[in-house]
Design a protein that fits this description.
By secondary structure, this protein is α/β, with parallel strands linked by helices. Helices cover 34% and strands 19% of the residues. It is built from eight helices and eleven strands. 29% of the residues are buried.
Length: 305
């Protein structure tokens, strides 16, 4: 593993990711030099993981402009993916509980780059390949601070028998095995004690000192990290948006009915209440129920918008 590699500079202005259910995050700015330690802080559900994946070229940004290692996103997502790695991301970079530490490392080595030069040197049974694989695995373990001698069964220890911090170190070792310029780590402080969190952050600091740019999602960022927040802006004081009217067809043609009447009683004169009651009595029972259901549905849809 090359310890003199150059990290990736990250520059982003007003980036956001919108999905089928709305915005995962938006309006995020990042400006970091190579080898920086970036902490993505925000409450659960604020889009921290999506931001990590976007900066690693694994999720398409839908607004704003960003470059990673000088390559624009989303235009050069493939190039950015080849220069970045992710670790500890649920559902994407999971460890297999039934496999051993050694099996994970060997599998990652097989998925990595082949040796340059002779074709025979790249074959799994070639001596050059075995020596290079062993050296790469040892370097990755050292970079992640994972000592096999401290594990219950060494490299034969299964993932289900690892402590949380040990599993985090293994995930990072797999990610850095092939010299990424940027490493994205999710939930760095999830279910860790205070001492374990400090050890985890120190690991990321050490990686950043080797030149790699580190981006980590967390709930509580250290003071020496470059803070990027995904928390949404405070909208508590903002006035509630006016709900859109809903058009309800009947046998006399479509007409517009305010949607708030399904949720709030009218505040006007008594004759306004009598007029609405008279309209409900004049309409067939099924049609009145349909109008109430459609109005409630429209109000709920407006509240989600």
């Amino acid at each position: 593993m090359d310890t003199t590699r150059q990290g990736a500079a990250v520059n982003a202005r007003g980036i956001g990711v919108e999905g089928p259910r709305g915005w995962a995050f938006r309006g995020v700015d990042v400006s970091a030099e190579p080898g920086a330690l970036i902490a993505v802080q925000g409450p659960s559900g604020s889009g921290r993981t999506c931001l990590l994946l976007a900066l690693a070229g694994r999720m398409r940004i839908t607004e704003g402009h960003a470059t990673v290692a000088g390559f624009p996103l989303p235009k050069r997502m493939g190039t950015v993916r080849g220069r970045t790695a992710i670790a500890h991301v649920p559902g994407i970079a999971d460890l297999e509980p039934a496999l051993t530490v050694g099996e994970h490392l060997q599998e990652q080595a097989l998925l990595g780059r082949r040796l340059k030069g002779s074709v025979f040197g790249a074959l799994p049974w070639g001596r050059r390949y075995k020596d290079a694989t062993r050296a790469r695995i040892n370097a990755a373990l050292a970079a992640a601070g994972l000592d096999p001698d401290t594990l219950p069964k060494g490299l034969r220890t299964t993932v289900r028998d690892l402590e949380r911090l040990e599993a985090l170190r293994l995930s990072i070792a797999l990610a850095v095995m092939h010299d990424p310029q940027l490493l994205a780590v999710d939930d760095i402080d999830l279910k860790l004690s205070a001492d374990e969190r400090e050890l985890a952050w120190q690991l990321l600091r050490d990686l950043a000192l080797t030149g790699i740019t580190v981006v980590a999602a967390c709930t509580d960022a250290p003071a020496d990290a470059l803070l990027v927040s995904t928390a949404p802006a405070d909208t508590a004081a903002a006035p509630a948006p006016e709900p859109a009217p809903v058009t309800i067809p009947d046998q006399h043609g479509p007409h517009v009915q305010p949607t708030l009447q399904a949720q709030h009683p009218p505040q006007g004169p008594q004759e306004q209440q009598d007029r609405h009651s008279s309209q409900d009595r004049q309409a067939p029972h099924g049609q009145a129920d349909t109008r109430k259901e459609e109005a409630a549905h429209a109000f709920a849809k407006t509240g989600r918008a």
